[in-house]
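Data availability (excerpt). The following record was deposited with the supplementary files.
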Amino acid sequence: MRYYFATAYAVKGKKDAYYVMRPGVKMPECILCTSPKGTGGNAASHPPQPRFGDAAGGRGNCFSQICPNDAIPPRSIGIKK
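Predicted structure:
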């Protein structure tokens, strides 16, 4: 997920250099990831570089972590404070 106004990301290996997305190039989406693997602009194959890449270890697959039913008690996902 990202904010709708997040339109720039840093160029790897260059200080103070950013890629800026043109308006309308990347529309907001209403889907949740089902894998920790980066897709679309986060895929390793995205030119000129992935925006953020894969999810951090133990993260990703947001779809399986959400239960929109208050009648079901929450389950532990193993995050330690």
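Summary of structural features: The longest strand covers residues 8-10.
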